Amino acid sequence: MSNSYLNFYAKLKNKCAKYIAKHLMEDLVEFLPVEIDLSEEKEMSRELFDQLDRFLLFGETLDGKSVLAVIANKVWFLSRKEKAVLKEWQTEAFESVFEVLPVNNDEIRLRDLVSEAEYNIFSGDQKVISEAFNTAQAGDFVETSLVPIKGVWFLSGIQKRLSHKDEETIFREFVQKQLPRHQYRHNPEKLKVAFELQKKYYDCFVSVFGADELVVRGQDLPAIEKRFFEAWNEQEKFVKKIPGDFLPGWLTADEVGVLVDEKEGLQYVENYGKFKKIFFEFGDITEEQKELFEDYFLCEEIPAFVFRRMKDRYPEKFKWLVEKIVPRLEFKLDPIKDFDSLMDIYKPSWREIFPSIFPFNQRFKKYHFEQAGVGRNDPCPCESGSKFKKCCGK
Fold first, then answer.
1. What phi-psi label fits residue 117: left (phi over 0), alpha (psi between -120 and 50 degrees) or beta?
2. Where are the extended beta strands (E) located within the chain?
3. What tens digit of pLDDT does each residue of 308-341 get?
4. Confidence at residue 40, expressed as pLDDT on a 0 to 100 scale
């Protein structure tokens, strides 16, 4: 396997390793999961090699800075191209468990078990490839990290082979516990399907309650959830939604807003009725209302779409409130025309929106069906005509 970036990749990794050895050893020792006397390491063990690689890609220094960022900022140490690649790694490098797709002598192809995206893989070390994949067969699992150079993907660190016996554990303890942004990593088609599913979720809520938001007593939340999820689970039998735990204080709160958004799904917001009242009441606001408005602005748990709704429904009052309450030194633009910029300041992660409902992962569909209550002798949900145990449930 060859690629024009192979030598560049190997030299860059070597430069980074030397910099860590000279300047960041204390930080590395703190990062290591077990204490290792590095002074006695004659040769680098596989475990230490892997930890060094993880420290470079995902570690932080003792003062909380990204290792990649620290190295990339050394103008004298790296070329402009090398710095650009390290910045690419800061946002794109990741570790996951992969399924090996059909392997031949000319390429390695992997499927990320989390996002289901597929990658053609290169490596800076041909020996690493042969050790990890010379006996690999389609369907095998491997745990490793990937890094890109201008869209070309390389293996990084040590590759760990996993047994087929670990399949259910990988699904339940790894795949299902990933953050939403990992579920759609490099897979825009899956994200598109998820947003379409989220829209159906929104429409189902509106069909049940006649609106996309409710204001209820905290003690009524379990009944509201039960009513909605029963309707949703009946409609989407294999994208089952199970009621979750409520935050402390919600069930005893005087009022809680139950809101559903076309992209963000179901959200709970305390004092939502009092918050809305600020916008449709005439006259000045009380000190209590001002504090509530500020709390909503500053609280990371309050989604940006709450303010978008108020902006769209009560534009004049929304503009007046922002100009009255938000310090002009912090925001000098028009609250309506420049709403997105306003949210960038007070809700900095608002643009990274992911659905709360996930399309089921095709590689693990039998576990999704089992969670949805499909029995082994039931007709297979894929409509093949066979029993589940003889089809997707194998």
1. beta
2. 94-100, 108-112, 118-122, 141-149, 152-162, 213-216, 256-261, 265-270
3. 999 999 999 999 999 888 776 566 788 999 999 9
4. 52
The Cα 90–Cα 59 span in angstroms is: 10
Residue 371 confidence (pLDDT) above 80:
no
Supply φ then ψ for residue 69, to 5 degrees: -65, -40
The residue among 243, 244, 269, 274 whose CA lies nearest residue 257 is 269
Query: Cα–chain-centroid distance for residue 96?
Result: 13
Question: In 118-220, which ranges are continuous DSSP H helix?
Answer: 126-133, 167-169, 180-183, 188-209
Q: Give one DSSP letter per residue of 319-383, joined into a string.
A: HHHHHHHS-TTT--S-TTTTHHHHHHHHSTTTT----SS-PPPGGGHHHHHHHTT--TTSBPTT-
In the numeric block, the tokens 């560049």 are attached to: 8
Question: What is the total residue count of the chain?
Answer: 394
CB 259 within 8 A of CB 270: no
* pLDDT reported for residue 281: 82
CA distance 319 to 311: 8
Give the pTM. Answer: 0.81
Sequence letter at residue 383: E
Q: Is the dihedral of CA 136, 140, 143, 148 positive or negative?
A: positive
> pLDDT tens digits for 218-233?
999 999 999 998 899 8
